[in-house]
Amino acid sequence: MKINLKNINVGNLIAERVGECDIDMFRICNFFNCTEDEILKMYKEESLSTDLLLKWSKLLSYDFFRLYTQHLVLYSPPDGSEKISGTKSAILPTFRKNIYTKELISFVMEQLNTGAMKRNQVIEEYRIPKTTLYKWLSKYNHVHL
Q: Record's superkingdom (predicted)?
């Protein structure tokens, strides 16, 4: 299954992962302390609360939050471009935006290798530094991640 990081439908992805893991519905219902109908309803939800997503991540041994992190890497504005005006120092921790996972690198390499995007398009659309992209090309161009 190909994951669309632009429009994440976490319910469908959870259902897919449950199928991959071959987990019994009885076990899932016990874990969540709910009915089968409630579980099936979650499979149809486009988004879930963070506490439910954390439970699914634990049960299925899969980091569903990483999907959203990758969405931010690909589709959010670059750091510093949209400062919130009138704010003092930030209380929340700040994170670096350049969290390049193997999945992200593989996605970008696939876009380039299939001709879906040109190098300049990748650099502009996903704001990947030119030097980083060229390092990826030399390192991963003929390697299946």
A: Bacteria
